[in-house]
Write a structure and sequence with these properties.
Rossmann fold; five-stranded mixed sheet; globular; hydrolase activity; DEAD/DEAH_box_helicase_dom
Length: 120
C-alpha cells in the first residue's frame, strides 16, 4: 500500500497537540500488530519496545518510553473496560478499518468511546 500504517503514526508522534501522550493503533490481527510495530520501530532505527511497542494476546513488548502502542481488539476492549477515558492516550488510530466490521467487538468499542465522549 501507500504506507499509511507506518507513516501516519510516525508523522503525528511529535505533534504539539499530543502533548507527549501515547498513540494507540488498533490492528485487526495479531500478526499485523506485531509486523506494524516492527516496521515502525525499524523506521526509527530502534527495537520494538522502545518508542514503538505492541500488545497482543499473551504477548507484550512495551517499555517506559513507548509512545506508539499497536494493539488488537481484545487488548483495546480490556483497556476500555479498565480505563474508559484512556488516560495518557492522545490519539486512537483504527488501522485496516475495512476489516473491522466483521468483528463483534467493534460496535462495543465504538459505543464505549461514544459514551465516554458524551459524558465530557
Amino acid at each position: 500500500g501507500a504506507g499509511k500504517t507506518t507513516r501516519v503514526p510516525l508523522a503525528l508522534l511529535e505533534e504539539t497537540w499530543l502533548a507527549g501522550q501515547t498513540i494507540l493503533m488498533l490492528e485487526p490481527r495479531r500478526l499485523a500488530a506485531r509486523a506494524a510495530a516492527e516496521r515502525l520501530a525499524s523506521e526509527l532505527g530502534e527495537k520494538v519496545g522502545e518508542t514503538v511497542g505492541y500488545r497482543i494476546r499473551l504477548e507484550s513488548r512495551v517499555g517506559p518510553k513507548t509512545r506508539i502502542e499497536v494493539v488488537t481488539e481484545g487488548i483495546l476492549t480490556r483497556r476500555l473496560q479498565d480505563d474508559p477515558a484512556l488516560e495518557g492516550v492522545g490519539l486512537l488510530i483504527f488501522d485496516e478499518f475495512h476489516v473491522l466490521p466483521h468483528s463483534t467487538k467493534y460496535p462495543e468499542i465504538l459505543s464505549r468511546l461514544r459514551a465516554f465522549s458524551c459524558q465530557k
